[in-house]
Task: structure prediction
Amino acid sequence: MDTYDPDAAFAERREAVRRTLRRVDAAEVRAFIDEVFTDRQSHPWFKPFHEFVDQHAADTFLRAEPEPGITVIYHPVARAGMWCRRVGRLEGVGRLHGRGLEAVKSLADDFLANPS
Result:
């Protein structure tokens, strides 16, 4: 039986984020939030995420899709972001934090310093 290696899984996800990272504007992030939160006002993350995007509407965001159904949105200036998992319907959502946030910060810094 294969054993799960969390460090290897994290490294794979990190590489997938790096490969799919791209710039997006606030309008695309708003549209994504509206698409994800089909129940709009009743979901507890809908309003905070929209308010954050509205506060940073003139800025560029970064977006990655490291695997089907997973999306990461990151704001480089605020050094904050969100993740979302949905397969047909919303399965999970939240703010980036801890090891995941640090990884995205590092990837975003490299991406912005070395655009290709």
Q: What stands out?
A: The chain has one domain: 6-113.
